[in-house]
Amino acid sequence: MIGGACAAALAVLALGGCGTSKESWIGDKYKKDGAGSYRSSKAPPVVATEINKKFKAIDRVDDLATRGAAGGIFLRYPKLVVGVLPNGPGSRITLSTPSSGYNRYYSHVSGRWARPGSNGWTNGGIASFRGGGPGSGK
After folding, report:
1. CB 55 within 8 A of CB 118
2. 3-state SS, residue 17
3. Is 36 helix (H, G, I), strand (E, B) or coil?
């Protein structure tokens, strides 16, 4: 009985320590500004580095040098796009699904990123599709 209780406690600790989601971590670290939008007093390169240090992105597009205030830094994850945009002296951080983020930031990322699949991207950056045929992975 004691061995079972210990195993259950270890399982809870292991599952509880799986880590924080990107959305949750960003929400805790930066000031909420609306649905999927946050603000920071720090400049975009600093904010993007903080996020990328915590959660390594598949790819990062930075067009601030070429587009200035109209540019941004865009982090691609399998199921999330994080945009870090200039906002006065600070930053505006946006969180989007892969398809919404790709469409929203198309003019910034289209030369670098493939269009996401119905299931976002793989860890290698390839479009990921969810199967749908009979018996396909179900």
Report:
1. no
2. coil
3. coil
